[in-house]
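Q: What residues go here?
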């Protein structure tokens, strides 16, 4: 390991990548773009073949997944983002089904090799400490087994505390690049989002510990929590939506059993406001994903309340959250980790929240899941289900009761068809009222 800080060019740094290597990339907006581009240039020159690329969701360009690199790079990601979705669905790239909390174990247990880990960090402080800033993900596990760790040193990366922080001696090769981090600006919540957020907020108690994710729906939920007290955050990721509640003192972590007073996360994705908020902030702990997503750690937080979304749900409560039929859309992520952890928490609530219809007006509540759809949250795990039309608790309910409850908060124009489907499935003992 290096004990000195001697930067080289990106082109020089990626020369350590060999044919057949497995490369882990830092995730979200912290993907080391300058190294990615330099690596792809080597590929274009015919210097590499059969290099496997692993990462969680990344923002920015992901050229290595494109058809032009077939046989050169093989994208085998732990989560499919918008930048790789088309290539995954067309077969030029691929997906490894895994709970994100267990992804690091694939490296440390030797299931997947890691030859080169490419990360992005803030400049070292006076003690030689650097930070992964906005994304810890599984980088520490990858680094622990990698032949080489290459770090882009970028002044725009916040010096976040927690597992994100380590000594520069753990880095083998340094590259300097000050490209601004990718920001994410979320759409304003729709009326549907606001209605769902209101129903979710009604389920959140004072003193609860939250996992909300990111996007317009979580932001709509957070906007309804201004009068709550002593909320905590233990999550996979968070964005700007939490900042106002921190400023108001609503989010203070006072009731947490672990990491009291701290906001715990493994990713950040938002504007520079949230990146700056994490910079040297003792309230923010950026932790390894194996910690944030461990259901047995999650379960120790009292009133743990996990809110996750879905692509579709069937009448028995099976939740598809990562595919559209056979087409891979995203990944399991941390949904089941938090759903299970929250359901085991004292006073906890596990919530699946989603609009009743797609933007094209197609019902997301279906008699049976689309052929080929993946079940992420099983009907054995599902508890609360929320739409813009209300909230129902499915836990401990029979199959027929679940069908009735789920249908009761479907879009009004879809309820009769769902009732009829349930009647056909369960027989004459299932009662429904025709319009």
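A:
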């Amino acid at each position: 390991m290096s004990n000195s800080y001697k930067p080289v060019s990106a082109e020089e740094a990626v020369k350590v990548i060999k044919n057949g290597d497995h490369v882990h990339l830092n995730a979200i907006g912290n993907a080391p773009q300058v190294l990615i581009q330099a690596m792809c240039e080597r590929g274009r020159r015919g210097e590499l073949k059969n290099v496997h690329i692993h990462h969680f969701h990344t923002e920015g360009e992901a050229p290595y997944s494109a058809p032009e690199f077939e046989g050169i790079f093989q994208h085998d990601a732990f989560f499919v983002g918008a930048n790789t979705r088309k290539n995954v669905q067309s077969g030029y790239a691929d997906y490894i089904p895994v709970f994100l909390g267990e992804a690091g174990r694939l490296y440390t247990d030797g299931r997947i090799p890691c030859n080169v880990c490419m990360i992005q960090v803030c400049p070292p402080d006076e003690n030689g400490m650097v930070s992964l800033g906005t994304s810890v993900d599984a980088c520490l596990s990858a680094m622990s087994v990698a032949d080489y760790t290459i770090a882009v040193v970028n002044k725009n990366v916040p010096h976040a505390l927690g597992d994100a922080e380590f000594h520069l001696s753990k880095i083998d090769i340094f590259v300097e690049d000050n490209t601004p981090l990718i920001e994410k600006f979320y759409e304003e919540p729709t009326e549907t989002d606001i209605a769902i957020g209101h129903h979710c907020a009604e389920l959140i108690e004072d003193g609860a510990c939250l996992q909300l994710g990111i996007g317009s729906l979580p932001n709509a939920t957070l906007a309804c929590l201004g009068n709550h007290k002593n909320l905590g955050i233990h999550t996979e990721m968070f964005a700007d939506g939490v900042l106002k509640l921190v400023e108001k003192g609503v989010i203070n972590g006072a009731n947490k059993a672990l990491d009291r007073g701290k906001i715990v996360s493994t990713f950040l994705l938002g504007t520079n406001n949230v990146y700056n908020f994490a910079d040297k902030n003792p309230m923010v702990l950026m932790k390894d994903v194996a910690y944030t997503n461990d259901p047995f750690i999650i379960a120790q937080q009292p009133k743990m309340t996990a809110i996750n979304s879905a692509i579709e749900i069937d009448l028995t409560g099976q939740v598809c959250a990562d595919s559209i039929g056979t087409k891979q859309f995203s990944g399991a992520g941390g949904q089941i980790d938090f759903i299970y952890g929250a359901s085991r928490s004292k006073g906890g609530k596990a919530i699946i929240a989603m609009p009743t219809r797609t933007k094209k007006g197609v019902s997301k509540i279906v008699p049976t899941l689309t052929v080929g759809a993946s079940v992420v949250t099983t009907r054995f795990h599902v508890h609360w289900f929320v739409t813009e039309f209300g909230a129902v608790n499915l836990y401990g309910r029979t199959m027929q009761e679940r069908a009735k409850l789920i249908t009761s908060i479907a879009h009004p124009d879809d309820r009769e068809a769902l009732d009829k489907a349930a009647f056909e499935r369960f027989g004459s003992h299932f009662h429904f009222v025709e319009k």
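A: Context that may help when evaluating the design: The first helix runs from residue 10 to 13. DSSP finds 14 helices and 26 strands in the chain.
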